[in-house]
Amino acid sequence: MPSNLPFWKTKDIQRLRGLGQKRIFLLNSKQDDPTGDYVLYWMQMTQRTTFNFALQFAIEQANRYKVPLVVYHALDEDYPYASDRTYTFILEGVKELYQRFKKLGINYGFYLVRGKKQPALDTFLKKAICLVSDDYPSFVTPLENTTVTQRCLMSHYVVDSCTTVPMRFFDKQKWSAATIRSKIHKVLAEALEDVTNPVLLNKKPFVYPEYFLPPDFDVAKEVSRSSIDHTVRPSAFKGGETAAQEKLTYFIAHNLDTYEVTKDDPTLQRTSHLSPYLHFGMISPIAIARQILQHKKLSVDRLFKSLISPDAIHIYFDQLIVRRDLAYNFCHFNKKHATYQGMPVWSRKTLQEHKQDKRLYLYTKEQLERAQTHDPYWNAAQLEMVYTGSMHGFMRMYWCKQLLTWTKRPQDAFKIAVYLNDKYSLDGRDPNGYAGIAWALGGLHDRPWFTKPIFGKVRLMNMSGLVRKYNMQRYLAAVEKIMPDTSSRKP
Ligand SMILES: Cc1cc2nc3c(=O)[nH]c(=O)nc-3n(C[C@H](O)[C@H](O)[C@H](O)COP(=O)(O)OP(=O)(O)OC[C@H]3O[C@@H](n4cnc5c(N)ncnc54)[C@H](O)[C@@H]3O)c2cc1C
After folding, report:
1. In the predicted model, is pLDDT for residue 310 greater than 70?
2. Pick the CATH number of 340-482 from 3.40.50.2000, 1.10.579.10, 3.40.50.1980, 3.40.50.10860
3. Distance, CA 10 to ligand 1 centroid (Å)?
4. CB atoms within 10 A of CB 300
5. How far is ligand 1, taken at its centre, from the CA of residue 83, in Å?
6. In this structure, are strands 38-43 and 107-113 parallel, antiparallel, or unpaired?
7. How do residues 146-185 score in pLDDT, each as one tens digit?
8. CA–CA separation, 455 and 193 (whole Å)
9. Smallest Cα–Cα separation from 330: which of 185, 437, 441?
């Protein structure tokens, strides 16, 4: 029988050295209950079976107690911005999860909460040795975890599978990419080590309640039956681990080598398009980085030591690892990250000083949502997001910054940016989104620039710069092509 010591005081989980132990955090002060029947893994934001540290830890715990593992996954139509777009993407992934878990001999059940809620998770908790769930710093997950942990009579571990270098490796909020980059580079070789799931020893089947979805459910039917926003239509992105891998394979074969010169050009769309998969945890940034290194026959050491000039891989890794981990660091340490108050003090001060500056145009939230501004490029970017579920990264910066000049107060600009991004972007509701908006409107992870009207010391981006840099007529034509019905452009 395993000891009742907290897991980090035992020697049987070898991986819990170095970075590994920073991934796993005991959220309450309870102990494992060895009289339980199984280990419970509540899958939230890591919707995959590979490079999933929570799953790995849950299997180790189950093997330690020689019990089965029960995976619980749910989707509630109450969650903000639930729409056909997010539901279709998630449910396509769920269908694949049923198959993948079956192959692994691990119990997996998905509860699509509709109408009267069943106390499913609480029922499962009654017989659990411990609860393992995903550590994720924004949107609904932190509150879900802290609420459930209060009802938990046994240990509740949250496990960080979302970052490359775990959020808890850092002791505080970092102020720029420059202050986090060298710390990440120092441990990157360890962070990118291979992760294989241990084999689950006890494969006893678990019977899920009849209101859980059967593995052969019909995605479109379940989406149409749900009380969610049906006006936000499904996107062309297909959900699931396989689709994520296909996107990565295509990117490596066709677009990785030119990434440093093509990434900012909105007329080319040659970035990896992996952000929706990263957001829902259908692919791990570690798996992406490992595959790129393998493809290029490079090690982390060679990447950083022998290649001196910046190239596509350095720049891609800087986005995928440094910028992304920095955004997660921001949301982990700054609980106000989804609000205007989360922006740096200096930028709020400068924006306040320029609050009275004359705005040439003012638009309501509805006008903005319908892409009814005087700026054809902004409108095109908005429509790209509304109809495809994504907006090119360079246009995101431009799109967001213009909101400062078209709203009465910078606080309004922030709220509208979060609303539109979270509602329409498949990758919205993500730490990258909150950090991106705080960067664009409030100079987060940036520095003060020369003072300009309305923006104050926040970095400015305007239409003339956009047109000077890129063939924006080409961008307009490309967006025109993706419009489902050009006679009616209302979302
Ligand atoms: C106003 C604004 C809003 C944004 N909203 C979101 C959002 O809701 N969700 C989201 O994932 N990203 C957001 N970003 C960051 C960035 O624009 C997207 O991650 C990127 O455009 C996604 O496309 P891709 O996967 O093809 O990226 P690639 O260029 O292929 O990059 C690979 C990965 O690196 C990460 N990455 C790239 N750029 C950044 C960045 N600037 N900051 C942090 N990580 C980055 C992403 O995870 C991305 O998938 C936002 C940026 C801004 C300025």
Report:
1. no
2. 1.10.579.10
3. 39
4. 19
5. 21
6. unpaired
7. 999 999 999 999 999 999 999 999 999 999 999 999 999 9
8. 43
9. 437
